[in-house]
Amino acid sequence: AAETIKIGFHAPLTGFAASDGKSASEGAKLAAEQINAKGGVNGKMIELVIYDDQAKPAQAIPIANKLIGQDKVAIGVSGSYSGATRSAAGVFQEAKIPYISAYAIHPDITRAGDYVFRTSFLGEVQGRGGAKLVGDTLGKKRVVMITLQNDFGKSLAAGFKSAADKFGITITNEYQYSMKDRQFGSIVAKVKSDNPEAIYASGYYFTAGPLVKQLRAAGVSVPIIGQEGYDSQKFIEIAGDAAEGVIITTSLDRDSDVPETKDFIAAFEKKAGFKADMVAASGHTAIMVAAEALKKANSTDPRAIRDAVAETDLKVSTGTIKFNKLGEVLKAVQNQIVKGGNWHRHSVIDDPELLAPPAE
Amino acid sequence: MGIYEVSLATIVLINIILALGLNMITGFCGQISLGHAAFYGIGAYCTAILAKAGFPPAVTLLCGLILAGASGVVVGLASLRVREDFLAITTMGVGFLFLGIVRQQEALGGELGISSIPSAGMSKIGFMLFVLVLAALAAAFSLFIKRSWMGFAFDAVADDEDTARVLGLDVAAYKLSAFAMGTAMAGLAGGLYTYFARFIVPDDFGFITSITVLSMVAVGGIGSVFGVMAATVVLTLMPEFFRFISDYKLLVYGALLFTVMRFAPGGLAGFLQTALRIRKARGETG
Amino acid sequence: MTAILKVSGVTVRFGGIHALDDVSFEVTPGEFVSMIGPNGAGKTTLIRAITGVVQPQSAEIRLSGREISNLPTHKRSRLGLVMTHQIVRPFHSMSVLENVIFAAGHGRIQSVFGAMVSFDLSRERDRAMKLLGLLGIAEMADKSVRGQPLGVIKRMEVARALALEPKLLLLDEPLAGLNHIEAARLADTVADINRRGTTIVMIEHNLGEVLRVSERLVVLDNGRKIADGNPNEVMRNPAVRAAYVGKDETDAAA
Amino acid sequence: MLRLDSLSCGYGAMQAVHGLDLHVAKGSITTLLGANGAGKSSTIMCIAGHVAVHSGEIRYKDRKITDASPMQRIKDGISVVPEGRRLFPNLTVKENLIVGGYSRSRDESNRELERMLSIFPRLEERLGQRAGSLSGGEQQMLAIGRALMSKPELLLVDELSLGLMPKIIDICYRAIAELNKDGLTIILVEQSTHRALEVADQVCVLESGRTVWQGTSDEAQNNVKMIDSLLGLREETSDA
Amino acid sequence: MLYLELLIQGIIYGSMYAIIAVGLTLVYGLLRILHVAHAGLFALGGYLGLLITNATGSLLLAMPLAAAGVGLVGMVVYRLCYHPILDRPPYVALIASIGLFIAMEEIYRLVFGPYGLTYNDVPLQSQIAFLGMNLRTAELAIVFGSVILLGTLSYLAQKTRIGVAWKATVDDPQMAASFGIDPLKVRYLNFFIGSGLAAIGGIFISLLSNLVEPTMGGVPSYKALAIIVLGGLGNVTGTLIASLVLGVVEAFGTIYIGHLMDRDAIAFAFLILVLMIRPQGMLSGR
Ligand SMILES: Nc1ncnc2c1ncn2[C@@H]1O[C@H](COP(=O)(O)OP(=O)(O)OP(=O)(O)O)[C@@H](O)[C@H]1O
Ligand SMILES: Nc1ncnc2c1ncn2[C@@H]1O[C@H](COP(=O)(O)OP(=O)(O)OP(=O)(O)O)[C@@H](O)[C@H]1O
Ligand SMILES: [Mg+2]
Ligand SMILES: [Mg+2]
Questions:
Q1: Are E154 and E236 in contact (CB under 8 A)?
Q2: Are E210 and A186 a contacting pair at CB < 8 A?
Q3: Is E55 an interface residue toward B (CB < 8 Å)?
Q4: Domain count, chain B
């Protein structure tokens, strides 16, 4: 076979996060196919080396070492959650191989060093976006938070709280639930008695679907604001009619006119057989960015590739990717709303100051 | 050895210390524990915090070991009150409680864990050798205990603690020492893991980890030091062997765990013993 | 002479059942006391209370003058107060010999740290073998306890108790499950042990052997002591005969 | 009624009984004697279907039952008081008795229950107590009562008088004699030789899993010395 | 008002727990196996119930069909997995069971996909006003369904000869056989009923969340163990009470001390507390 360039990719293909792992890797594979169909990178085909990390930090370390030491990948991409991504980031940084995180939200990931980048929002940034959406766009001031107890939920909550004042929001109460919960009866009962103007609830589609369904069933009718964790057709399937009107902050705009986004949404559904979600788009984006950097660097030197990644300026399905000094991306937040059983554009938050990621 | 192999070897050795700790409690003394990961976690968090405060590895590891051992004694007190399956579930509860509390402690990094932990000041290979020495010590210590009168007393407690008591054994003291020694080893393993990963989150020390360690002990053959070590090597590396079948990896792992218990319930040690006995019997008749 | 064991006011209740009701008795050093009484009279419960396996509602128990009712079982055992089980409780995972060796090593396992640093068990092995020989089960020494006939395990229990070098040995129906020849032998062995200085309290329904070897008889009925004294006198007590004795032994005792 | 033809049985590779021949007539009482470990209990449990037959045959009412399950055997009328009693410790006294009569209809079982309680009034006082917490003797009474609940035709009793006080032993022997008069066939393992010889029609002495003496109880009464020396055998070898 | 509402939510949680845990109690009581794979059967119940409902449009048909199907699978699990290792120490079966559970989850993922399935049209969602609250029919169905099923079961266990036969088999299967009880039949029946209950639990839960996922057994896998221990291990009534109490504790706990520890930790803190006071569980079974 012709010589290939290897891109390392790890995602939770089994275990509790397997669904996100599947979306991310399908997105990544689609990107690789599209690139190879166009002749690859500088005449070489790219090859994805995909490993399952079960979203476990302890598993991600040997995987990162294997990708670097045995598979000799040119660049690594994480399609996994923050824990696994953080531990792998350390290994890549130490080996000085560039590494891109597709959708993990933990702030420390890029702080591992100058070889680590992220093509998605930080949790805190998105939380701030959420605050603007609630307080400014929707004009709701008395808010109850329902926070998912993991790094994703916690950093969203921190971001939301930090910007709440700025938009005149008072947080009347905050409840926490864990990743495994699907039954929210008691939280729902309490929220009902709190009688807020809006609910800011973090979660993934598999927790948010039941949560929203149960809130609505109990007669809570105020706006519910979510984030990219909701961003999946599955959320609408689970919550059914209750999903109508739910608004989220995310990075994939379903009604986009941008060709990259439109192409991706169509191509993904064709390839995978189900509708694209944010995670899939993120996996796709990260591979696109990696491939573009490999093309520009046109070298096997990790340093050159790193520099090429740092200089990225690429239009992809989730927007235009440009990195700051720390390796964080700066882009607009897409607000989507459920209407008629599908995600549609609600509004866009493009406030560079509010959305500025940390630079060190 | 490439970096991949070194990292695997290190994690295997850490797990050996961890599993030998549980073997002390469950294998030797017969007190089933489903919460071993909590002590692993206590050692890890203690080490991480001290290391970030600037203490050298010798100090941090020792503190982790002592803190875990002391907590082990506290949980051991529960073993004086509840027995067998009640104890199994109580220790499981201790695991969940530890995790639940750590998750909500911002001082311990909460859900985000602790990162940027300083290195142990050794090269990767150097660190592996360091862990190797400690693992060898742990194994030697286990063998030493097993052969001593203490091991004999543990056997008696594991078999029938009421009778042991009637025969003049201070059962409580022995149970507590088993917990203290076993959890201290877990604490040491946790500290080593901290220096290895240099980033820890609560989930590293969850129920799954406890179960994994217990299966190392059970697959190895409860109480058998060499069996447990062999099983630890196999079970730690198994996910790596099966990487190529990504999608089926966990299925194969689960099925294998089941199969070993189903067809070789004495674990590897029991399996080897049976095999040897058959060979011996054959030798005698032949 | 001061009593080696002085029990007063032992009361044990299980829910509504009064198993023991204010029982008192004394044992002087070197004595061989047998305890009899109808089934369910509370004999087993009494020695379990003495060794601390059962928690009495009230009791005063003195061993050589020292109050021990607040000590845990293992401490009482170390003071020389040892019992065997009516329903056998061997360590199933060990051989017959190991069961006894373990008891013989009671000195080594007293402190956890002592136990950690001692390895040698040849002395204990010798003693254990001697005891098994004494009880006539030396040839079973290396067999696993599992599957041993009841008679062997019963004697193993006695050997194990002796290995603890008791001052006062409480035996719960040691002769049950032995045929009359074996029973006679074991009774002789026990009497012999007694002659060498160990005080013995033996619960037994085998009246023939009881009357043959013991010096004193205590009778419990319905949780109360109803007689205490010289065996032949006790057996003539009508209350005892009414509660306990069948037609055969009536003749035998008469 | 029951025939054992060169029966060998044991546990795994270990053989406990070697080529035992025994004929038990209907309505008779047979006593098995022997030193510790002679194989008495093993024989009993083998007839009850709990010990694996290695070779030989068990015939009951002229049918081969060598391979029948314990469930089958109790339906055919074989009931057992096992060594160590083997009560259901967490069941109450009453429940233990109900299990004893499980192979009979509910009405029959209730009738038997009344009868048992009249034989052992002590059990009536303890009906609701956990069997495991009964005293040793009470447990023995329950074990006997439980076995009789199924109205057996052949009763296997391992150590009838174990742990019982003399008075109750009398009651038990009287009950046994009465049942025997009503046609119950009994195989008895007993340690107290002279009690056993009194009631038995036939005596069989075992040693290391083999029959070493067999005869009627009258013959046995006349050979007490010889039987005693057989019973002591194990002791002598071990003393040597 | 709020308290009443929380109490009712607690009872709903409790009923769900009860129906899963009672099934597990049956298995545990009989075999002393910590049958973790029960949670795998629970998930299978969810899948079958949902698939049949989607195919036929009738939940009423799906319930018994799924229960019977899963019941049969339960019997197969017993025969293939537990029957051969019954005489082994309990941890052997525990590890085998965990292996089996992992494998089951993976099979669901591979067969039904990782994203989970939803109802075409979720049944029993109509609202019922009750003391000023909006309850869904499904929530009431859960409470009443559990009461009826468990009441029947509890009657069977305590008042009938079958119940006595069951308890006798628990204590000593060999002797039970000697009195005409077929232990194998009792065990099959037990696994059938227990697994059937698990299946119904799986369907109930899916009605509230409209989601059946491969990992949905995760929570019951350990929480059900905690409940049966709380209830006194092997005690059906105790399990019922423990389920309800734990449901209520969680309902209030998540609201009022949720910032201190998560739901699991609350449950287990409660468990440890109870066990330290009553080492034999709330109602002791043995
Ligand atoms: N844990 C318990 N719970 C309830 N009752 C009990 C318990 N232990 C013993 N008993 C009752 O207490 C009484 C005394 O029992 P104990 O075992 O002391 O009798 P014993 O004199 O040794 O009789 P035996 O000669 O039959 O062995 C019995 O009636 C028994 O049923
Ligand atoms: N479960 C078992 N496993 C292995 N061997 C056994 C088992 N039960 C009994 N044996 C062996 O079988 C032989 C016969 O034992 P058995 O119990 O039949 O003797 P017994 O005549 O009833 O003795 P005892 O008078 O002590 O009750 C003994 O050597 C014993 O060690
Ligand atoms: Mg007694
Ligand atoms: Mg016997």
A1: yes
A2: no
A3: no
A4: 1
